[in-house]
Structures are given as C-alpha cells and as structure tokens.
Amino acid sequence: MNLLDGIRTNNFVIVGRAGVDLFPDPPGTATEDADVFHADLGGSSANIAAGIVKLGGKAALVTRVSDDSAGRFCVNKLAYYGVDSTYVTPVGGEYRNSLALYESRIEGHQSVIYRNGAADFQMCSDDVSAVDYSKFGALITAGTVFAAEPSRSATFEAFALAKKAGLPIIFDVDYRPYSWPSPKVAEEVLSRAAAECDMIVANDEEFGFMAGSIDKGLAKAKQLADTNAAIVVYKMGEKGAITFANGTETRTGIFPVEALKPTGAGDSFMAGLMTGLAADLPLHDAILRGSACASITVSKPGCAPAMPTTETLTKFMADHPDPTSV
C-alpha cells in the first residue's frame, strides 16, 4: 500500500505515549500562583490520536501506562475522545505516567515535564507484536518513543511488522532533549528512524539537529524526500512550511491568531494533515488544514481538549480564508 492509499483509509495505529496534562485556571495564571488546575489527556501520540478522531478519523494507540489511578485516568480519557485503547497495557512497579504541567500564557510561559521512570518507555516487543496491523491503513509515531529501551527496539520492530503488513510509516520527529541520554544518541537514532519512513514531519530545528547544524536542515529534508520519503514537511513556525513531494516544493503559510500558549500545535497539525489527506484534499490544502488546526489549538487552553472538531475547523477556515504567505 502506498503512502496516500494508506492514509485514505483514515484508520491509524499510533505508537507512543499517553500522559497527564495539568494546566492552571484561569488562563494567564502562573503555576506557582494557581489554586485550580485542570487535568486532561496529554502525550504527543495520544494527542495526535485524539485530534484525528475529533476530525472524523479512527485511531488506536499502542503504549504502556502506569498500573495506577494516573494510568487509568489516561485510558478513560482515550475512551472519552474515542481512541481505541485495545493495545494500551498497564505496567506495575515504580514506573509512572508522564506528567506535563504547563501554563495558558505566552509571556513568561512555563512548562515542566516529569518523565522519571516513564511507563511508556516500558513498551516492549510483546506489545507491538500483539497488534493486528492488517486492520489499519498507516502507522504514525512521534520521536520520543526512541529515546529509551525497550521502547526504542519495540518501535523499530513495529516498523518492520507494519511494513510487512503493507502499511506506510509516518514520523513526527518531535525531538525532546530531556528524554534522551545524549544529543549524539538522539541524532543517530532519529536519523535511522527517518530513513525507514514514508512521510516525515519536523521543524527546522529538528531537521537541523539530524543534519548536524540548523543551517543544514533544509538540505536534510530535501535529501530524505529524494531517497526514502514520499512526503517531507519542513515546518518553520510563523514562517509556515515547505513540503517536498514528487520532486516539487510546496510553500504554505500560517493562520495568525492570538495565541494563548505555545503547546499542542505540532500534534494538532499532524491530525489535521492526516485527515485532510484522508479526505483526498490536494497536498497544499491538507497542509493548510493542519496549519489551521495548529492555530486553533494554541488559542485555547489544553492540548487534546483544544483540538478542533470538523465543525470548528470548517468555520475557522471560512473565517480565515487567507493564511500568511512565506
């Protein structure tokens, strides 16, 4: 199955973490001054899954959660958003769910990530081999899964099993330095993963990181598009994105909004892009749909709860017909 045919099934198996997000209320409140916090689903892969389902797609998550109330909270939230948790497995002992504590403000924004003894890094060969890949059209993962063992080896095994079943592989590089033992290990492993993927999405700093310096990032994106990847999306923040596919470059802008926070944009972008391509939109239009999702998400509190539904997205794009050019 080629990349676009797989995406058009609009049914994705997503490998990676589900976590707990906490954010102070009301918006603008500093963490240290807060009396009230809201809790919701977090974790890049879980957010992508929730975003896809909110836009009419199907998604199943493959991960480990802690065998405690925090892990059960995540599973309950996955069910709330309509994400299939068949392949979400609890792990006991001292392993704990990741926790993201972040604020709904731009100026002075603080994000604190707790990843000590992370339960999702305990995903193993048994977890990925239990998946019936024939039920899905494509596999999506985010780079954090590669930061530690046994999750790293398990994800490469999932790649092999998915490919054997004919599924294309979609990779959001999502480099988080705090999760990795060293930048050198991260560069080597993320580059190895990218070389196995049919579609790669990353920002300019992440491509630059894999290339050895940020000024080489664009060339790295082009090189991946010329070798193994059918589509490569090079994101540049407020400058938009450059997408490489079939020997062509597509430049797209962003939808300016009054941002409430910087978090969740990348996960929402991926959800919008996937469901846009699944709806058979031209690549340019699907990229803009992802950009619109990102803008909507940064303008509201939370990540998964801030991601748009189809109705919200349609209205937003009707009200914002002219994204900035790059």
Notable characteristics:
single chain; alpha/beta; UDP-N-acetylmuramoyl-L-alanine:D-glutamate ligase; 11 helices; globular
Topology:
Elements: H1 3-8, E1 11-15, E2 19-25, E3 36-42, H2 44-54, E4 58-66, H3 69-81, E5 84-91, E6 99-102, E7 111-114, H4 125-129, E8 138-142, H5 151-164, E9 169-172, H6 183-194, E10 199-203, H7 204-211, H8 217-227, E11 231-235, E12 241-245, E13 248-252, H9 265-278, H10 283-298, H11 310-319
Parallel strand pairs: 1-4, 1-8, 2-6, 4-5, 8-9, 9-10, 10-11
Antiparallel strand pairs: 2-3, 6-7, 11-12, 12-13
Helix pairs in contact: 2-9, 7-8, 9-10
Helix content: 25-40%
Instruction: Give the overall form.
Output: globular
Q: Could you name the CATH topology?
A: UDP-N-acetylmuramoyl-L-alanine:D-glutamate ligase
- Kindly report the name of the CATH homologous superfamily: Ribokinase
Structural class: alpha/beta
Question: From the coordinates shown, what is the CATH architecture?
Answer: 3-Layer(aba) Sandwich
Number of domains: 1
